[in-house]
Amino acid sequence: MALIVKKFGGSSVATPDKMRAIVQRVLKGKQEGDKIVIVVSAMGDTTDELVSLAKQITSKAYGREMDMLLSTGEQVSIALMAMAFQEAGQKAISFTGAQAGIKTSDAFNKGRILDLEPNRIMEALDEGNVVVVAGFQGITGHGDITTLGRGGSDTTAVAIAGAINADVCEIYTDVDGVYTSDPRVVPNAQKMKEITYGEMLEMAKLGAGVMQPRAVEMGSRFSVPIHVRSTFSEDEGTMIQEVCSMEIKQYLIRGVASDKNVAKITVLGIPNQPGHAYKIFSMLADSHVDVDMIVQSVRVAKEGVTDITFTIARTELPAAKDILNRLREEMPVEDILVDDKMAKVSIVGAGMAGHPGIAAGMFGVLGDNHINIEIISTSEISITCLIGEESVDTAVKAIHAHFFDEH
Amino acid sequence: MALIVKKFGGSSVATPDKMRAIVQRVLKGKQEGDKIVIVVSAMGDTTDELVSLAKQITSKAYGREMDMLLSTGEQVSIALMAMAFQEAGQKAISFTGAQAGIKTSDAFNKGRILDLEPNRIMEALDEGNVVVVAGFQGITGHGDITTLGRGGSDTTAVAIAGAINADVCEIYTDVDGVYTSDPRVVPNAQKMKEITYGEMLEMAKLGAGVMQPRAVEMGSRFSVPIHVRSTFSEDEGTMIQEVCSMEIKQYLIRGVASDKNVAKITVLGIPNQPGHAYKIFSMLADSHVDVDMIVQSVRVAKEGVTDITFTIARTELPAAKDILNRLREEMPVEDILVDDKMAKVSIVGAGMAGHPGIAAGMFGVLGDNHINIEIISTSEISITCLIGEESVDTAVKAIHAHFFDEH
């Protein structure tokens, strides 16, 4: 007897036939006494279609009304999924985010789950229902509908699993687990049996697309084991959890990630006085442009000025450029350089902390391949190098070979 | 400065262009200080499409999950309408039925509004918003979404107008008002400037499709003036209100209505003992089959048995037949006859009460046209005759000519 949350994405529920297939799979795997919560996204392209409808009406397709609109996509899915379970003879009930007790901040389009009151879910499970919950949505303290932003359904599933103390949260996806690197780039990348929250979080932040960082964070906070597995096969996928088995721990490096959504901005000749760097980054923050890597360098040749280089997501470059143009008017700077052909390559592994040779190994591989490193940043369990976009696939392959082919 | 509720149906909001047209019309008519609530239905064929999707999943396209599904249609409309107002520079906010405070009974698919707490609507109006509310939906005491059944958006609009004490509730429709008879049948039917709730309720119940009886009832209960008018013209339509002007009161007859959705059932040879008629009608009521006209006749020739004839909506005939078949097994009856080619023709008018000649006039016209009357039923402000469907248009024309062409 187990308490399980299963999340299915939009492509898994795109048609009535696919919904029926999920119902069959869930009921086949259901043991006597199992309690099951299903979290679903909007069917197929529904969200895109709703966005397109909004864009025919307004140039401002965001804010409160956008969440009112988009949340209908998941609501359609849950109603149909509940009907599909009922049609198969299984008692079922659907809940919107609000009905499932998912309270969020009032940041429309990117709400954060603040609280989850699972009373109705638990009651419905106790009454023998499969409970079908709308992913990606919640409700503010004022009763307004919010959505959770990209990957929000994963976050919903993990948050519910945490709130009801589920045995496991299964994330069904179109890949069969988390790999040591992107299999499209590195054909001999290996599927991991296990990975820690910390490692997965780094992998996700550094470009491994299989799960959103916020969902992993939520799993870590509530110690929810997350099983990433394939919608299309019965095979075990990858288990994300706090502590991994000894067998796994011996690996110093768990994965090689890369991210091409990177732009580098250099502001030259900033007066080397307190407050100027703060000014730049506070202006970016006010416009919700996230800054990733930062390097400041004082010039030896010219006293009193400094250069600052930082990276942002390439998709945020238009917003950043607006801000930088305003900056020129407010602050004496020599020049602002933008390079939108950058990428990051990273190695991740909780075991690398006590092994200084790891970083040297990574830099050596890049050097051997004549790849110039522009910026290096490190965390306790990762090392990231900023390199030219054109070299990133070569870099990933070479680094993966260096750390994994030797084992 | 006025407080106005305006309701637009699905065909009026079928496309972004049509939504923009409504926004322009509403803003053009809006005086400084006016407070406006817009109630909308689902866009165009959305509801039909959702029903069709459900039918691909289940043979039981009704109940709680169906309301979860269908309510998304109106939610899409309100979000887009609010965006359209904002795009036109008008502050606006959308509310689902739940957010608008519309509490219903827990009868899914045909919820009745039990209470309406308009706090959020009033606050949003005070903040200068046009408030856009989803028609056709509400929420139960348990937080489950309900829909209000056919014509539900009219009921939503009138209920809100009552709760906020609006000056008027405008129902925009594809006809430009209420006519003395169906203009497709009677080309010289006249548009009424005014009609009382009671008269409109009878007209609606007796087949005048322009408004649902429940919405009219709601208007009467809260004394909300209802203005039925055209989406496509600026002309005044018909005002439904408690007391009409003297000019209007002089008319004895206000309209001629007809309804072809009628079937006649005759149960022959029922034992003439207490409890048998009760049995028949309680079985029908248990299955939600509404009985309209009823005639019981004791036979002179054969003692101890009676015949009962009654009418139901033709659309409920399949359900009724099931019940009647069970009846044959439980009660000794001679035979059950069904005639599904019947119709009703009615005259309505609050002024007819003190004028016995009116009924005689109606029967005379039918007799002159060789139309046989099967059953007659009367209320304080209407007379209805059951006749053969094939004669109904002739009857309506002749009765209309008799009562209106003389004036």
TrEMBL record, chains A, B:
BP-aspect Gene Ontology terms: diaminopimelate biosynthetic process; homoserine biosynthetic process; lysine biosynthetic process via diaminopimelate; threonine biosynthetic process
Keywords for this protein: Amino-acid biosynthesis, ATP-binding, Diaminopimelate biosynthesis, Kinase, Lysine biosynthesis, Nucleotide-binding, Repeat, Transferase
Residues annotated for ATP binding in this entry: K7, F8, G9, G10, T173, D174, Y179, R184
Residues that hold substrate according to the record: T47, E74
Annotated metabolic or biological route of this protein: Amino-acid biosynthesis; L-methionine biosynthesis via de novo pathway; L-homoserine from L-aspartate: step 1/3; Amino-acid biosynthesis; L-lysine biosynthesis via DAP pathway; (S)-tetrahydrodipicolinate from L-aspartate: step 1/4; Amino-acid biosynthesis; L-threonine biosynthesis; L-threonine from L-aspartate: step 1/5
GO molecular function, one term: ATP binding
Catalytic activity: L-aspartate + ATP = 4-phospho-L-aspartate + ADP
PROSITE patterns listed in its UniProt record: ACT, ASPARTOKINASE
Top EC class, one word: transferase
Superkingdom field: Bacteria
Entry-linked CDD domains: AAK_AKii-LysC-BS, ACT_AK-LysC-DapG-like_2, ACT_AKii-LysC-BS-like_1
SUPFAM superfamilies recorded: ACT-like, Carbamate kinase-like
GO cellular component, one term: cytosol
EC number: 2.7.2.4
Family: Belongs to the aspartokinase family.
Quaternary structure and partners: Tetramer consisting of 2 isoforms Alpha (catalytic and regulation) and of a homodimer of 2 isoforms Beta (regulation).
Function: Catalyzes the phosphorylation of the beta-carboxyl group of aspartic acid with ATP to yield 4-phospho-L-aspartate, which is involved in the branched biosynthetic pathway leading to the biosynthesis of amino acids threonine, isoleucine and methionine.
Protein name: Aspartokinase
